[in-house]
């Protein structure tokens, strides 16, 4: 590419005293149990544990986390402020045009959340005509949009909001919204904290596709970090093979969330 | 693809964002009007030094100005329903606020917030009016309300206009916070667009361009109004008294 | 007859008016003179209740009002009976000369617009400013502004016209036109209470002169009596001071 | 657990948040100082009607005031590195800004933003100074700079103080936006805490309390300063001239 | 000797000064009189370059400066040689009487603080206000403020002292003390150019009177000549106007 100087590796970007290349990973740290800031002030969560394990295998790099606004994670990658985005990102074609995606490291399952004792929702079909509330920049909201586009006669009423997930759940509990969709791990965390009057139903496998074209989570990189991505991918593949991913996910979710083997064959974009 | 910065997107997004300009303006205009009325009342309480009320107004203004507007939105939007729920739970009542549209909460919170700031602007402008003119009005036999409407406000408006204009410009940008109450105006739509393709930087630039144009136009309108409201610089021609004979 | 009784006014610890009594006959032109800061303006302002005295009553047309407690409708009625002309004119700056004169008629006297305009034009004609009807205050000289202010006050047909140094903010050349206007009003029979530093004007137009100092009336009589033969020492001293310019030391 | 609203948390969180008060204040104070200096310069350009520069300043102020501060933070924090990257890419150069701490970007953006608003406050206050005093200074032989320092500023400060105080209070709350540049101050820490326990509402209430106390204290300080800077109400005693004989 | 030559000044289309020449001898007290708005203040302000004339030069101590183009150090030097006393005193409101007088000495003459304070005290003593040294302007009467303003100007030892209606903003009783102060300065030999409406004072203190109107000097002579026997019609008319108060119609 072009003058050639800035293509490929991150090695010129900056280096620490030890001569290692510093990689800055940016996170919004707003999605427990995936990524949040622990009591010790350091990022914690499944995504963080996995990334730490990855960089344990990459001695040339030194990993640093930076906690910032969610929007900044994305903008900062393109601008070169950060080299990796860590926020349990899911994939769609639009986003894939803007960022490089790693191999997946997490298999996400989503649930419909409705008021306890109310009408259960087991598929998008059931949700037709009901009201849904969600945030921006998350794939469940995009999925509902996609459903409406394909099924204009069975449209769902979307309300977007800048409020946090607890508010969406509360609104479902008090009946001001019919349902929301979140991933199972977060659902469990929230219920532990607030114990809302809500119930959940798993989203069927085929419908989950709508949510994210696939139901995996990825690290993302700016377009000029192909080399870094390659190395992270290699390490992720090893972690999958030696069972580390399974181990870490059991620690956080109590179940195996490592993606299937064939997902570690070729990168998604 | 794979551009770091998608310049074309900045412009192609603008029409999409502009669809939500009406929401932004509706919220800003209604909140501004309400805040002007409330602000005038608050200012009058302070100027007339109404006992008790005066202290309450001071506390109100201090709290509103001292806390982030985000919190005020949160409190109106979540606090009120939460409180009602608690009351229902404790007293077995059954108040319900689910029927209230989110934009109403946003309107209330923004209007209350703005009123505290406008109260000070209005107070200062009312106090800037030449006392002599107010005394002249009293001496003619007008009561305070008549003097306020006929003499004081027409003077004060000219003084307050630039500050109120700035406040309004601030409010237009401030409406974007209403997104925490699920009100989708321009900035919110920008976040929704960016949430699809993760192009936050581009969408913020688009928004900046739109806001800047709005501000620019408004500044022109305000300085035009200012000129209009001022007494003309040049004296009119003398009247020909023969034509306007007093019968 | 207008009876003012026992007006007392204290600012903080400063007793400016100490139980002033004054009876003014219909058609009288009473001039108040005295040193600066002695309470002349305050007295006028108390009579018009722009300042609230601690004690004091005023009787106009047989109706007595307590100046310390008057409010609401009574106050409006009192003010309708009195007119005030200020040192700084205090015209409404956003209104033309005509609108300035009409304002009180419309808002206070609830007149129809046409009727108010007719009266306003007449008053402007009286003060010689009909051709300036559409001028805003900023387009008029000080003297012209003061004449509009007088027209505004007279349009309300006050039983008592109060004037507080109506010429002291004017250039020397403009003083004459305003004094002429006031003199004309005096000749028309208006009852007036005026504060002025223009001794020659006071001598010429007042039917009665009052010297105020230390919260009390020190002299009260015809101009001839007060100027010609003051009894009080402080009054004599005052005249000496303002007449210095005419003394030998200051003439060639 | 499972309370909808955890009242105790509102207070137990306050000490955790206060740990970040120094960051908030450091950012606010330095940005304020820089913005005052820059604002004064901008105001002088407008007052002295310096050709060309005057137009540039007008555009600068219009753009800064017309666009959301969020965008300004984005442009400084992401735009500058992005531009450099683009330049490097095109020209084979190797400029690098990775060594610059994020707080520096936040400082620059906040100071620039604030300077546009302060410029107007400062200009208005400078212009409010009695022209007669400025002429008296000129007549004594002072040049504009001397008159500015010795005569104009001491007068203007009293006029500007309340508005600048308000601007500073606004800035303190505004520093929370620096989170987009990864600067963790009080509000950002609040969001981080809430990211751990999902208690957004509670943390916002905690923040409101802290901000309100800060504002309250600042308002007192400002009105104290105002009183101090004013010429005392009461005249001093006359000097006994025998003691202070002129030799 | 101070030579002022060809001063012209136009505001928009209003030619206020039309090539005024004036030569002032050392120790002269020149009074400028004339109708309101005729350009008296503008003339003084052009001499001190507070207003920039289109043309004009001034020669003081043999040094000639072009008033239309002077700037920087030359301007400062010119202003050091001239002193100005304003109608509204224009004291520095945030400084005490003493600091007001010291300010120019310290900032412009770069004196040491002690030296400046010594001179300032002396000047305050001369105007009789040494006991008010620590008073701020707001604590002083108009007359006292104007005396401090004169002290401030004199402390700079100007070759030419300009005074623009120094008493017209004062209460009649306070006028005397300021006139006394000015007279004292005149007797001490200061060269002065003053605008005043106090004709009796002008008559008494000026060595020369100039009547300005229509951008030109219409009369120039001793007070006796100008007041006693004006040649120009407009000048006669002016005197008639301001003397109205003393005419039969206005006396009893
Ligand atoms: N609002 C006020 N608060 C406190 N003191 C006041 C107020 N108004 C007037 N005074 C004081 O009352 C006294 C009388 O003031 P007033 O203006 O009535 O005097 P005056 O005789 O009209 O003087 P002048 O001839 O200068 O107009 C003065 O000492 C003045 O300082
Ligand atoms: N800054 C200005 N801009 C425009 N016109 C001005 C300005 N200053 C003065 N003038 C005009 O110049 C003329 C002369 O004004 P100046 O103040 O010199 O008169 P004056 O003789 O001092 O009058 P007065 O006796 O009222 O003080 C007036 O017509 C005035 O309106
Ligand atoms: Mg008075
Ligand atoms: Mg003048």
From TrEMBL, chains B, D:
Coarse class of the protein's main subcellular location: membrane
Q: How does it sit in the membrane?
A: Multi-pass membrane protein
* Keyword Ribonucleoprotein listed: no
Record-linked InterPro entries: AA_ABC_transptr_permease_3TM, ArtM/GltK/GlnP/TcyL/YhdX-like, MetI-like, MetI-like_sf
Q: Which domain of life is it from?
A: Bacteria
- Where does the ABC transmembrane type-1 domain start and stop, copy by copy? 21-222
User: GO biological process annotations for this chain's record?
Assistant: amino acid transport
Task: Write down the Pfam families for this protein, in alphabetical order.
Answer: BPD_transp_1 (PF00528)
Q: Name one GO molecular function term.
A: transmembrane transporter activity
Keywords recorded for this protein, A-Z:
Amino-acid transport, Cell membrane, Membrane, Transmembrane, Transmembrane helix, Transport
Q: Where are the transmembrane segments?
A: 20-45, 57-80, 100-119, 140-161, 200-218
Localization terms from the record: Cell membrane
Query: Which terms in the GO cellular component ontology are assigned?
Result: ATP-binding cassette (ABC) transporter complex
**To which protein family does this belong?**
Belongs to the binding-protein-dependent transport system permease family.
For this protein, the record's PANTHER family field holds: L-CYSTINE TRANSPORT SYSTEM PERMEASE PROTEIN TCYL (PTHR30614:SF0), MEMBRANE COMPONENT OF AMINO ACID ABC TRANSPORTER (PTHR30614)
Entry protein name: ABC transporter, permease protein
Which source organism? Coprococcus comes ATCC 27758
From TrEMBL, chains C, E:
**GO terms for cellular component:** plasma membrane
In the bilayer, the protein is annotated as: Peripheral membrane protein
As for subcellular location, the record says: Cell membrane
Q: Which domain of life is it from?
A: Bacteria
UniProt keywords (A-Z) are: ATP-binding, Cell membrane, Membrane, Nucleotide-binding, Transport
Mind listing the GO molecular function terms for this protein? ABC-type amino acid transporter activity; ATP binding; ATP hydrolysis activity
Q: Name one Pfam family in it.
A: ABC_tran
Q: Gene3D superfamilies annotated for this entry? A: P-loop containing nucleotide triphosphate hydrolases
Q: Does the keyword Transport apply?
A: yes
Question: Can you give the residue ranges of the ABC transporter domain?
Answer: 2-239
Q: What is its main location?
A: membrane
The protein here is known as Amino acid ABC transporter ATP-binding protein
Originating organism: Coprococcus comes
């Amino acid at each position: 590419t072009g003058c050639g100087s800035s293509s490929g590796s991150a090695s010129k970007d900056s280096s620490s005293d030890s001569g290692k290349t510093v990689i800055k990973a940016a996170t919004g740290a707003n999605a427990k149990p995936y990524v949040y800031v622990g009591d010790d002030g350091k990022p914690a969560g499944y995504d963080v544990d996995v990334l730490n394990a990855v960089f344990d295998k990459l001695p040339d790099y030194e990993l640093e986390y930076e906690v910032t606004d969610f929007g900044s994670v994305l903008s900062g990658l393109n601008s070169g402020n950060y080299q990796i985005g860590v926020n349990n990102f899911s994939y769609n074609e639009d986003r894939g045009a803007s960022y490089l995606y790693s191999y997946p490291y997490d298999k996400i399952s989503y649930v419909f959340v409705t008021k306890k004792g109310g009408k259960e929702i087991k598929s998008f079909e059931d949700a037709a005509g009901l009201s849904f509330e969600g945030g921006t920049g998350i794939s469940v909201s995009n999925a509902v949009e996609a459903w409406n586009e394909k099924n204009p006669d069975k449209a769902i009423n979307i309300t977007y909001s800048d409020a946090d997930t607890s508010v969406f759940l509360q609104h479902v509990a008090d009946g001001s919204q019919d349902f929301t969709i979140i991933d199972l791990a977060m659902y469990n965390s929230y219920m532990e904290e607030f114990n809302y009057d809500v119930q959940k139903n798993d989203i069927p496998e085929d419908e989950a596709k709508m949510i994210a074209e696939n139901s995996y989570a990825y690290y993302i990189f700016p377009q000029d970090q192909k080399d870094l991505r390659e190395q992270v991918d290699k390490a992720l593949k090893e972690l999958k093979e030696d069972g580390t991913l399974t181990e870490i996910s059991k620690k956080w979710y109590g179940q195996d969330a490592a993606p299937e083997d064939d997902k570690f064959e070729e990168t998604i974009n | 693809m794979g551009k770091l910065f998608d310049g074309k997107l900045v412009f192609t997004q603008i029409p999409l964002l502009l669809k939500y300009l009406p929401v932004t303006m509706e919220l800003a205009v209604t909140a501004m009007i309400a805040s002007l009325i409330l602000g005038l009342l608050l200012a009058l309480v302070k100027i007339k030094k109404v006992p008790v009320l005066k202290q309450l107004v001071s506390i109100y203004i201090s709290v509103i100005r001292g806390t982030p507007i985000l919190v005020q939105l949160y409190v109106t939007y979540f606090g009120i329903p939460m409180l009602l729920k608690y009351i229902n739970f404790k007293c077995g009542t059954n108040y319900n606020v689910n029927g209230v549209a989110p934009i109403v909460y946003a309107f209330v919170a923004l209007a209350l917030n703005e009123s505290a700031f406008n109260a000070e602007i209005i107070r200062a402008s009312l106090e800037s009016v030449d006392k002599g003119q107010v005394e002249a009005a009293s001496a003619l036999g007008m009561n305070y309300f008549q003097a306020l409407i006929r003499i004081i406000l027409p003077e004060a408006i000219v003084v307050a206009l630039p500050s109120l204009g700035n406040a309004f410009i601030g409010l237009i940008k401030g409406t974007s916070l209403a997104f925490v109450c699920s009100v989708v105006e321009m900035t919110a739509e920008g976040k929704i667009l960016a949430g699809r393709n993760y192009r936050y930087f581009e969408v913020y630039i688009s928004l900046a361009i739109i806001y800047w144009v709005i501000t620019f136009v408004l500044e022109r309108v305000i300085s035009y109004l200012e000129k209009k409201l001022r007494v003309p610089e040049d004296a009119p021609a003398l009247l020909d008294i023969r034509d306007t004979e007093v019968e | 007859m207008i009876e003012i009784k026992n007006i007392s006014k204290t600012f903080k610890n400063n007793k400016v008016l100490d139980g002033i009594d004054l009876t003014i006959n219909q058609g009288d032109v009473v001039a108040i003179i005295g040193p600066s800061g002695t309470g002349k303006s305050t007295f006028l302002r108390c009579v018009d209740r722009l300042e609230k005295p601690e004690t004091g009553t005023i009787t106009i047309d047989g109706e007595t009002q307590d100046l310390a407690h008057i409010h609401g409708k009574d106050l409006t009625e009192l003010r309708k009976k009195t007119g005030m002309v200020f040192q700084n004119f205090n015209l409404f700056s956003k209104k033309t000369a005509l609108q300035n004169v009409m304002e009180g008629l419309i808002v206070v006297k609830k007149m129809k617009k046409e009727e108010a305009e007719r009266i306003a034009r007449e008053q402007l004609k009286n003060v010689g400013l009909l051709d300036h009807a559409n001028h805003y205050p900023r387009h008029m000289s000080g003297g012209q502004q003061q004449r509009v202010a007088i027209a505004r006050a007279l349009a309300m047909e006050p039983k008592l016209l109060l004037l507080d140094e109506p010429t002291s903010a004017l250039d020397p050349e403009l003083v004459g036109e305003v004094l002429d206007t006031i003199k004309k009003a005096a000749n028309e029979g208006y009852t007036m209470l005026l504060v002025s530093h223009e001794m020659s004007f006071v001598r010429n137009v007042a039917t009665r002169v009052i010297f105020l100092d230390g919260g009390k009336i020190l002299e009260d009589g015809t101009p001839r009596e007060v100027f010609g033969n003051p009894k009080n020492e402080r009054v004599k001293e005052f005249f000496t001071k303002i007449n210095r310019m005419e003394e030998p030391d200051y003439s060639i």
